[in-house]
Known about the structure:
single chain, 515 residues, six-stranded mixed β-sheet, 15 helices, binds adenosine-5'-diphosphate, binds magnesium ion, nucleotide-binding, EC 6.3.2.3
Amino acid sequence: MAAYPPEITGPESERLTEVVKDWxxxxxxxxxxxxxxxxxxxxxxxxxxxxxxxxxxxxxxPRVCFEQGVHVQxxxxxxxxxxxxxxxxxxxxxxxxxxxxxxxxxxxxxHLRVKEEGYVQNxxxxxxxxxxxxxxxSASSHPQVKQVEFNxxxxxxxxxxxQTSQLHKYLSSAEYPLLSASSIGKGHLTxxxxxxVRGLAAGIRHAFTAYGESTxxxxxxxxxxxxxxxxxxxDQKHLEYEVAGPPQSVPVFRLPxxxxxQHTRLADGGPGRQLLYTPPQLPHLTFEVAVVYMRCGYxxxxxxxxxxWEARYQIERxxxxxxxxxxxxxxxxxxxQQVLATPVGAGQAPVLHRFLSPASHAALGDLEATFTNIYPxxxxxxxxxxxxxxxxxxxxxxxxxxxxxEGGGNNVYRAAIPGFLRxxxxxxxxxxxxMELITPPAVRNTILRNGxxxxxxxxxxxxxxxxxxxxxREREGRxxxxxxxxxxxxxxxxxxxxEGGVAAGFGCMDSIALV
Length: 515
Ligand code: ADP
Ligand code: MG
Ligand code: MG
């Protein structure tokens, strides 16, 4: 095969651009345009969707790395279910994050309040995504994936990711064979199946069934709790439609978090605390909410006032199965990832042993192989070493500093680290972790963004989705009711950019060509 992906120019790139744009609109590989575009529209509300940034070709990705990520996902699911069951461990984590992180403290208070009166729902749902980059020690060594982070709340792009895989499959059969510069026709590329939408929806459906029968006489439903003005709405829509069915029909509603307490309430009388939802568009109907799937609530911006925290509290104390619960959300902090990855002293059992059933201990090495160096920034021995690295003008260039935040745009990179640390009180440093940068070998590709093509070196981030439903109380047998790998995401960014968020405008959607 000639060089892949091929460099294309002139009429060929124009044609491919048109084909991709049309396919994207026709298949919902789309986002809402930014407010500025909507405002400039002569007919407000006319432009509802625009094609998402995407690579023209699926990026080459080492097969061993893809298989490594797929292989460990179910163990990761079990691990995070188990961490979420371990309140003692999480209490310690929240303590170590410290009081300077008001958001994590406020979140933890929600859990403590509900714990005091007792939880009425023991099942917990996780729609997880473990993110990786390729690491290669030297040109002669095998590439491996190293984990960037593990997401336990609002892990996005499962919807758009399945569509991107479909787009690239379509192009490889219908369009690439027509390119003069290449021989990448049908059968020349190995494009793995991506069941992210079906997989994630199956997780929600499992929880919907496991909730049992409605006890209030109202039909059951699933609520997607969302941010107001969400631009990444179509990603969520793909999932909503899949959950709604066919084959079985499941009522699914979108509810903006800011309106949660206005349209939901707990059932009166009795200890059941069933969550009841009356859709504003169907005021004569009431549903019993079986599953609350959160695509919001992961950062301080979603909690502008005490009312928002009350809304989170109402959901947490209700009988609905939460995806995620507060405990599961806290399990997904970068602090937890650091504690798992930081080696323990000689003679001590690895922290991982605490969470995995003996049957999974064999998989321990597989998990550890995905870890990269992560340090605390506290006053422990490891923390003091990390502080030295972080403040050193040369050493710091190999690191990224992360607060306990989600959603992109929160990290501090390389040479900016010392100045950042000096700009905040030293007592706040332990709310951050220091992580070695993973530096994947760049590949070349062409990105189509806002109608324009950009060619050059790109860096890919793999995400593997996992779904897990478990009982919070069953710690002995781990209580896992459902545990599946649920497809993948490939996000790609220019190799000059630190962050790769698609929604944040840094990266683009991609899919995998196995090499
Ligand atoms: P968030 O929860 O906000 O998505 P991440 O830990 O995923 O936070 O960091 C955001 C982005 O920063 C990642 O998508 C990746 O592009 C980059 N990044 C984070 N950690 C590393 C790392 N160790 N090596 C290289 N890039 C990283
Ligand atoms: Mg994250
Ligand atoms: Mg991330």
